[in-house]
Design brief:
Blueprint: H1 2-39, H2 41-45, E1 66-72, E2 78-79, E3 89-97, E4 100-108, E5 123-124, E6 139-140, H3 143-147, H4 149-152, E7 158-163, H5 165-169, E8 177-180, E9 187-190, H6 194-207, E10 211-218, E11 224-231, H7 251-260, E12 269-272, E13 275-278, E14 281-284, E15 290-293, H8 294-300, H9 303-324, H10 357-364, H11 374-385, E16 389-390, E17 396-401, E18 404-408, E19 415-416, H12 420-435, E20 452-459, E21 466-474, E22 481-490, H13 492-515
Parallel strand pairs: 2-9
Antiparallel strand pairs: 1-7, 3-4, 5-6, 7-8, 9-17, 10-11, 10-22, 12-15, 13-14, 16-19, 17-18, 20-21, 21-22
Helix pairs in contact: 6-13, 7-9, 8-12, 9-10
Length: 530
């Protein structure tokens, strides 16, 4: 009995001791925090959260006696591949501050630069008040500045301040001016080339389309060199990355699937009377082509031949090759394990699983449920140009700070989606589309570089408007760039003229770049270091 009483007392003593030690530790932590708040307040609250102007003047009470002007919002910038700025605006001027006339350089990411594109996005007031670690409340609202806002937002803005005039009259020293430099956020380095982006933007403007896009991709690296978008009614819309009905551009996939599955050969023969009839299928071609081979059918964009080719391959073959070509994704490589852009819609080929002959025939010519983006179309041309290997296009190549790329994002892994023979046969048919008398892209026959191309005219239901497409690569034989010109919702003839004009601008610029007569950032990339 005595032993049990003694054991209970020891248990109570141990519990009381543990409680006392816990209370003592809590008080010690509280006292340590209070000491740190008094000694180093910036460290406790976080340097990014407490970039307080009043910590940099002689007395905190003096803040109300100063005139303070913010000269730099401190946000990081969206950069081109050569580290030239793409987003925001920097400018210099004189600032009258009290009795002082100062020469000041301003930086504001809310202002747009001359090459601004909706892909960059906009910065503005937040929809919800931001977290406490933001020294400046503005946030990215769309595009890259939204997707990478957690890296771009400022650590501390820059200020300049001087005594207010009434304080100077009361005896404050008139010559004192305080300046606090910014502690900027990180910069996002894209793969966009400033010279190519200017060419793409100019081509869109000169074509006069109300909605469209121009995309240029480096065949060797799959870097996006240009991605210009325009929508007169919705300026924030990134047309270059939005899936749309591709029309005859998708015949590139159908031909590749027919050759890869050994269902057809380039010399397989078809006859086009102007319409295609099969059980459950009624389809009209845009003209009666007569007899032609599969290769000639791609050059002439014959709907009858490709409806038959699609039925020969089947829904499974078309869907399988589309998946291998990454046409059912958004087409952008991930950067550091995260999406390069937020909210992109993936492409698609079939909706649902059931596919009758009518759906297969219409899918084979790029109608029905098929949707791909101009970026994916340009990457498809790059796959054919490179001998059949596919990789997601890279848009973000790293993060920079202090003028150097500190974190680099490698290109996406390669996959051999097509055999080299298939890619060569499809590429040769694309070249025939330019040089053949019946080719639908023969308007580019006089381009300064040899172009291989495929046109597309996508019907939009019962609407009289169409989507106009022109994809390709150049120079044929030693391809360096792949491109896509896209015009949305125009009359058929106007859409064709617009995309041909845009493609001609790209070919002319590529020839000038080949000769080295224009500045281009395709030179060696900046150094990557710690």
């Amino acid at each position: 009995m005595a032993y049990r009483v003694r054991r209970d007392k020891e248990k109570r003593h141990r519990r009381v001791s543990r409680l006392a030690w816990a209370m003592l530790a809590a008080w010690a932590c509280l006292l340590l925090r209070l000491a740190l708040v008094m000694l180093v307040p910036d460290w406790v609250a976080g340097v990014r959260a407490t970039a307080r102007w009043q910590d940099h003047i002689r007395a905190r009470a003096e803040l109300e006696h100063l005139r303070v002007v913010r000269t730099d919002d401190g946000r990081g910038r969206i950069l081109f591949r050569n580290l030239e700025p793409w987003s925001g605006r920097r400018w210099e001027g004189r600032l009258a501050l009290g009795r002082h006339l100062l020469f000041v350089a301003w930086h504001d990411e809310r202002r747009r630069g001359p090459l601004w594109d909706p892909l960059v996005g906009t910065v503005g007031a937040p929809d919800v008040w931001p977290a406490r670690d933001r020294a400046v409340p503005e946030q990215g609202q769309s595009g890259l500045v939204y997707a990478w806002d957690d890296w771009l937002h400022t650590g501390r803005p820059a200020y300049v301040a001087a005594w207010r005039p009434d304080e100077v009259r009361r005896g404050a020293p008139a010559g004192e001016v305080w300046q606090m430099p910014a502690r900027p956020g990180w910069d996002v380095v894209t793969t966009i080339d400033p010279a190519w982006q200017e060419v793409a933007s100019r081509a869109l403007r000169q074509a006069g389309v109300p909605r469209g896009a121009v995309v240029v991709i480096d065949v060797a690296t799959r870097d996006v060199l240009a991605a210009a978008s325009w929508d007169a009614n919705r300026p924030q819309r990134v047309v270059a990355l939005e899936p749309a009905v591709p029309g005859s551009v998708f015949k590139l996939v159908t031909m590749a699937a027919a050759l890869e599955s050994l269902r057809l050969r380039p010399q397989s023969w078809f006859y086009c009377p102007g319409q295609f009839r099969a059980p459950g299928v009624r389809l009209r071609c845009w003209r009666a082509h007569g007899g032609l081979t599969l290769r000639e059918a791609l050059a002439a964009s014959c709907d009858v031949a490709f409806a038959a080719a699609g039925l020969a391959v089947g829904a499974g073959g078309i869907a399988y090759l589309s998946h291998r070509l990454h046409l059912d994704t958004d087409g952008l490589a991930r950067a550091g394990g995260r999406p390069a852009l937020a909210g992109l819609l993936p492409g698609r080929v079939f909706l649902g699983t059931a596919a009758d002959d009518g759906r297969i025939a219409n899918t084979a010519i790029g109608q029905q449920d098929v949707r791909i983006s101009p970026l994916a179309a340009a990457n498809l041309a790059a796959c054919i140009a490179s001998g059949g290997w596919v990789a997601d296009a890279r848009l973000v190549r790293g993060l920079a700070h202090g003028g150097r790329v500190r974190i680099a994002f490698p290109p996406a892994a390669r996959l051999q989606a097509l055999s080299a023979w298939t890619a060569a046969q499809v590429g040769r048919a694309m070249r025939d589309a330019v040089i053949s008398p019946r080719g639908t892209a023969r308007a580019l026959a006089d381009a300064p570089l040899a172009v291989a191309a495929k046109t597309g005219t996508a019907e939009l239901g019962t609407s009289p408007w169409v989507n106009g497409w022109l994809v390709g690569f150049m120079p044929y034989g030693q391809p360096r760039i792949a491109f896509c010109a896209f015009a949305e919702r125009l009359p058929s003839a106007a859409a064709h003229r617009a995309v041909v004009r845009m493609a001609a601008e790209i070919a002319a610029a590529a020839a000038r770049f080949e000769g080295g007569s224009l500045h281009t950032a395709l030179r060696q990339p900046p150094a990557v270091g710690p």
